[in-house]
Amino acid sequence: MKIYVGNLSYDITEEDLRQEFAAFGEVASVDVIKDKYTGRVRGFGFVEMPSVSEGQAAINSLNGKSLMDREIVVNAARPRTDDRSGGGGFGGGKQRRY
Description:
This protein is an alpha+beta fold.
């Protein structure tokens, strides 16, 4: 089960997050998302737990819990959509022809 964890402290490490979730069962992976240019934590991450029942127990217990002075948001991760284009095109306006 893939779990979304939001409103994380910018000082959190993957090991900190792993320890929180390990209290509820086996943790397969932890991924704290960082800015690719600065390396700074972006405030969210994902935890993967093989057992759905353990994952649901973690969600129920950790959602709204204070972690490093931040009230974290924990829920089942939604599947990623491939529509990440962010628009594109020419952005309107007149185009000059030479």
